[in-house]
Amino acid sequence: MTMALIACSECGRAVSDKAAVCIGCGAPITTSSPIDLDAKRSDAPPPTREQIRRRALLSLSMLALGVIWANILDGRPGSRFASFMAALLIIGGLCWLIVSLVHAVSSRR
Ligand SMILES: [Zn+2]
Fold it and tell me: How far is ligand 1, taken at its centre, from the CA of residue 88, in Å?
């Protein structure tokens, strides 16, 4: 493991890239290290609010479709494939909805 010295972006002082804050001025140290999650996250442009809303709506309709389908199938012998598809829609819609919600929350920061 190597410990490199980098220049603080605030005061220019040489500080360890493993340090969380600058020892000189206390400014947070930003590194381009691959372990840095914040740097990784900023690589991809965050989805816009409109995109998040559209995804949430799509996942919700997918979830609703699965629930409706399951209700239609309920009380009927129904084929295994149809029940499987209904379950898949519900699970897929739920997962997608959670992902959209996570994006919505993280984009608000
Ligand atoms: Zn500094």
Answer: 52
Sorted by where each begins, the domain ranges of the chain are 1-44, 49-108
* 106 alpha carbon – ligand 1 mean position (Å): 28
CA atoms within 13 A on the CB side of 59: 17
pTM above 0.85, yes or no: no
Contact 89, 65 (CB under 8 A): yes
Based on DSSP, count helices (H) and strands (E) in the chain, helices before strands. Answer: 3, 2
pLDDT along the chain (109 residues), means of 10: 80 88 87 52 68 88 89 73 86 90 77
Q: Distance, CA 15 to ligand 1 centroid (Å)?
A: 8
